[in-house]
Amino acid sequence: MQSPTHPVSWFVTRGVRRTIRSDPLLVVAESVGSKFLLSEPVYGLYEQCKTIDEGIEGIRTQLSMLWDAYVEFPESKLTEGGMELREKLRALIK
Description:
The chain has one domain. It contains two helices and six strands; from the N terminus they run E-E-E-E-E-E-H-H. The strands form two sheets. Strands 1-4-5-6 form a four-stranded antiparallel sheet, covered by helices on one side.
């Protein structure tokens, strides 16, 4: 049986408010004992949580941290991999 997926939308509020594109990220939720493990494979995000809502909020927090670390960071200080991640993150925003 395939694990259920849950949409995760988020937005950036620095400067001009930008919203995520119309198709939000989908995270997979798996039950692990009394907890859940949420995963988003494109960005390598994982969150272990008591509830799915708690896990979705954790994924949103991770996305915000990635945005701060790669999009808001000076381009000249990023590695090649950092630049690739920066472009993937920027592609999420309209």
